[in-house]
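Chain X:
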Amino acid sequence: MTLPAERDLRRGLYLAPFDQLADPRTLVELAVAAEANGWDGVFLWDHILWRPPVRAVADPWIALSAIAAHTERIRLGPLVTPLSRRRVHKLARETATLDQLSGGRLILGVGLGSSGNGELERFGEVVDPRERAHRLDDGLARLNQFWAGEFEPRPVQQPRVPIWVAARWPNRRPIRRAARWDGIFPIELTGPEALAELVDAITRQRPDESGPFDVAVDLDPDTEIAPWQEAGATWILTDFGPQPQVERVLDVIEHGARDTNREHR
């Protein structure tokens, strides 16, 4: 396994497509500006509903397709898609098509999903966390089969579209799940020390030949990123919360990425 500490740090935006950002044209404009200002990725929350006072919610997949069509370099994807409420064969078609459209830039973030917003119960989705976990594991295995050639066209990226798995540390089962794929998106970490422990746990579960593995953490715009990078983060995603303001996002886009020490640029 390639240790996260040995990899270049990448910077991304983590945007809720809610309220001011519910217009997909606004999301495209922000993504284009991010690419022009040296950012490495744009990732969108994937929800059907959110808690008040949020009212307007955009579909992330439609917005990501528009972003893919108007950018050339930045990575993009949903963070995170609950597989328990998706038909895996439909998701296989969508992800392969989006990877084709973007020229191989898609990253698929997946997780159990949360019942805290009422978006599972209201629409008759599975609520039991164990059943959602079972469906997540089965769905990932099936998705990999579709990408491997059962469906055509295959994704541009081979052997597959990178998969990042959401997990809450120190819960061990999600860590084991993430270790089987390409990255982890830890939720609600208490600090860099907890991230370092998580990275150590992941490293011990992945063989040396398993290849690169991403560790993506979401931080507020004003957070000092150096301790998180030292703890093993390979991606720092700037998070604006559930009611992002367009002006604030634009200000961070214009200053955030280029104000950090990024020797690989």
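Chain Y:
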Amino acid sequence: MERARPDLVGRYLLDPSLPPPGELDALLATGKVRYADATDAIPESARILHSLSPLDPAAAVLDLWPAAAEQRHLVRSATAYDFIPALDPERELADAPERARYRVRFELLRSARQLHVLSHSVARDAWRLLGRGPRDVVVVGAAPAPWCAPASDRADARRRVQARVPSLDQRYVLYPTGSHPRKNNERLVRAWALLPAPILASYQLVLSGDLPASTAHHYAHLARSCDAGASVTTTGLVDDDLLLALYQGADLVCFASLAEGFGLPVVEAFACGTPVVASDRPPIDELVAPEHRFDPEDETSIARAIASHLPEAGGPAAGAPSGARTAARSDAIGTAPTWADVATRTASAFDALLDSSRPARSTGHGRSRRHAMAFVSPLPPSPTGIAAYSWRLVEELRATGAVEVDAFADGPTPDQRAPAGAALYRARSLPEVELVRGGYDSVVYSLGNSHHHLGALASLRRRPGTVIGHDVRFTNLYRHEHGYPGLAPGGFARAIRAMYGAALPDRLGEEGSLSDGDLDRYGVLMAREVVASSERFLVSSSGAARLAGVDVGSALAKRIGILPFAFEPPVGGAFADDRSEPPHGLAGPARAFWGASATAVPAGTPVVAHFGIVDPAKEPDTLVAALARSGDQLAGAVLAFVGPISDAFAVELASRASDAGIGRSLLLTGPLAPDAYRSWMERATVAVQLRRSSNGEASAAVGECLASGVATVVSDLGWARELPGDAVVRLPVPASADSLAAVLVDLVRDEPRRAALAAAGRAEAGRRSFASAARALLEIVESPATSGARRRDVLF
């Protein structure tokens, strides 16, 4: 959850009566971990309290649902692993006090607004036992631990097991089990004794789990009494290293349980590449195909399933031909889910719960009404990516049905447009429109570091609101504000002194701008006034939040929050331009492909592409040098810079490519219409999106590449550093041409790796949709803004 949606969880609460649950270093680093009895356990931003152990009879009821949560009117949700005791109370709850404790917790669970379960069968149990509907019960699933992986050598894994389990000296069938009667251990031992003699002579049955010595002795005695000799052994409770080796070294896992909530050992075995036969009982039947299941109450059925899935063991097994057994073993290895999948489903469930639990607002006449929002931003056709981003965000805000949006077009571009259904005004008209309208519930400013946002800066000083900071550095915005002819000179320097006082030299900004050297030397961001004037200042990453916090100081840092950056495949508008003439002096393929779509590239040609504005800060020289150094390994590949580029830099870049010996491989498209831009993204083999530094911005071009399924190389800094490691290839800053060349050669040649990157990129895009960003923004602006805290927190 913390990797997928760090914005969603406000605290991870520990039971002070128990030891910590495993390694917590990564979570401790977030600063969110508290003991449940801490004074600040429940933050002001919390809206949901989610319990991961709601039916634990050892936990006090007041710990499961603390009084502070009741007083704060938090929404209650919980994870229910199974309802086995409720389904069979005579057997499972024979002890009267234990039954009473369970019933109290069961009723507490009934009052939860939302239940998370691990399987569809448990979901059906919840519907029947609790009277809940499908909307209230969400199947989130479960996954094996990250350490589960196939063995490179099964025999070597078996030797590692035998070194720690002296009683094990043969190949074996594994059952990860426990001592509870529903684990069905006795019946499995009796079934094992029915196997043909060659199998009993070649294999052992290993029962691994929390089995007391007396219980282990019982199973050994049962095996001898059934003429299975010493072929049944137990390990007791094992650590993760031994459990992994047990999975990896087994020829088969036999999961004979009579009842489960999920069946985690099954997917652990799958993740370790070990075939599985299992009980034909829910929810195991959701994991294992019918041909690999058996009747767990029929010893003959269990024995037949085991025998038919073992390799040849000195003779025919259960009458099955060898080829049939080989195919059965191969088919018995299923697909293991991942925790990323579970986290995504869980986050979606919490988003839906947050949306459904938002209190209705009143007009004062007893009627609920929709949230009224003013959204100030440049809009298409403004030549800035923020315009296209704001358009999509406004579209999705309106699609929620919970908000009315009036758009206020910012910047000098004429004829700006708003999405259907949104009223359109000029940014400078905000005070008058709000007065006539009778006020807005919220004002949102979409702010970047250019002259397209001067109207938002002026309005923000008069009317505080929520700022979506697409950058954390605003030096260029202030330079434009004070750089128009006719203004008194020195305004830019005065703005710097007003923010930073004597902390910076008086001379800074006297020339109306800041040199690259001054920016590097003093780290000037000029974010202080914007954050101070805002109710909240929302950035796209935790790195950007830290950067802004350094600039504005601890008092204002409380207003800084994170609104995850949304992205999707390019839909048009970002770089549309009517210009078709290439720069004077540009020659060769660089000129021939100017304004062209990717259909002009011959089929089968590898395309290494850079998307977006072509600027020296994005290290195009490194990309040119890398392609040159790849030599014959990328012979025939082309290097395409897809997006706007200044005339002078286009000629300069083409000259450098010619000097490096790849002049005929360099393609420059210049600004493109949406369809042509999209065609290059669909055609690209690899995208390279490097940067020398970060000002807290997120890259729309990187997001479009991921959403389009393009294998993408990025610089390991800023927003890109926080993307999932399986979705991008990261290079250190600054990247060397040699290291980039090696990565390009590898990616162009390795189609499976590109496919894996593409799948992970699309998955990340699914998590970062504009619809989810709109819902998150609406939650934020509807919450009190005293400290700028995000009120989407879930407590675990």
